[in-house]
Design a protein that fits this description.
- The chain is globular.
- The strands form three sheets. Strands 1, 2, 3, 9, 12, 13, 14, 15, 16 and 17 form a ten-stranded mixed beta sheet that branches.
- It starts with a strand and ends with a strand.
- By secondary structure, it is α/β, with parallel strands linked by helices.
Length: about 300
């Protein structure tokens, strides 16, 4: 099967971990083992998040005051190269040498008039306590929002509309090459009045971008990997229940956090409706079982209502 796999931020840096190169490589090395096992049986296309990384680069960039800070689209492109390089190397160390892997810098079209620019919602960068968040908000003009017991910077997250490099990615995948693309939700761009592309100050949600990628590639399945085994109702409460399978219409009747599970559910449901194929959400260690339908939360038009574990 052709499977688009979207690696969540936990596959790169776990919540609360120091944002250093060693932790990132160690986590990607673990992720690569699961990807390599799936690669033996399926045709994989790999996408990934970049929230912690792009936020860290923005923080480092802001500390150098001799020049104006670099825009988020450029910082996003930097993280795609960094993360893609490590995934290529770690996965390449586990699969046969002739199984080629390549990272594609992926520009994704957005609407400059998207309402998201008036309502920043995408968390980026490390977590802060309340005092740190208030200081950063005052000093840097960042928008800060609660993230559990902590705070994170939030930036505009417009809806992805089209993948500029779609034809190139399809040619590579059709040639049997494992492609890492749409990293961090892709690099947000738009067309000006002369039909010339320019970068946009935003971060696209990687799950929505990955779903767009999966649809464009006619993927047989779209899998989003996170740090929980299932989609849950009442997550973190005494009423928490794990969902084993659901129809997209039934699943979208439920409420999920906009900063975490919400975009995953939206991306999964959109993909299922547009393609008729299945999507799934689960944890990295269960990747093969998720693809086989034995783990995670399955979203499919063939399911009636919602089935709980």
């Amino acid at each position: 099967m052709r499977v688009v796999v979207a690696l969540g931020g936990n596959a790169l840096l776990r919540r609360g971990q120091a944002l250093n190169a060693e932790n990132q490589r160690n986590n990607i090395r673990v992720a690569a083992r699961h990807l390599a096992a799936a690669h033996q049986q399926h045709e994989l296309v790999i996408a990934h998040g970049n929230g912690p990384q792009v936020g860290l680069l923005a923080l480092m960039d802001a500390a150098y005051t001799a020049v104006d800070p670099y825009p988020l689209d450029v910082l996003g492109a930097e993280t795609v190269g960094m993360i893609g390089y490590i995934i290529e190397q770690e996965l390449g160390n586990l699969v046969p040498f002739e199984d080629h892997i390549v990272t594609v810098l992926t520009q994704i079209l957005v609407d400059p008039d998207d309402i998201a620019f008036k309502n920043p919602s995408k968390p980026v960068g490390p977590i802060y306590d309340r005092e740190q968040a208030e200081i950063l908000q005052l000093e840097k003009g960042w928008v800060m929002a609660p993230d559990g017991e902590h705070y994170r910077r939030v930036v505009p997250s417009p809806e992805p509309q089209w993948i500029i490099e779609m034809n190139v990615i399809r040619m590579l995948v059709d040639s049997g090459i494992t492609v890492i693309c749409a990293g961090g939700g892709g690099i947000p761009v738009a067309y000006d009045e002369q039909d010339k592309l320019f970068g946009v100050e935003a971060v696209i949600d990687k799950d929505l971008a990955s779903g767009l990628l999966a649809t464009g590639l006619d993927a047989d399945m779209f899998v989003m990997l996170t740090d929980v085994s299932h989609v849950y109702t009442g997550y973190g409460t005494s009423e928490q229940r794990a969902i084993r399978a659901a129809h997209p219409d039934a699943l979208q009747e439920l409420d999920f956090a906009s900063g975490s599970m919400g975009p995953k559910v939206l991306g999964a449901c959109k993909y299922v409706r547009e393609t008729g194929n299945s999507s799934a959400i689960g944890q990295l260690s269960d990747l093969l079982s998720i693809i086989d339908g034995r783990a995670g939360t399955l979203i499919s038009n063939k399911i009636e209502g919602i089935h709980y574990v």
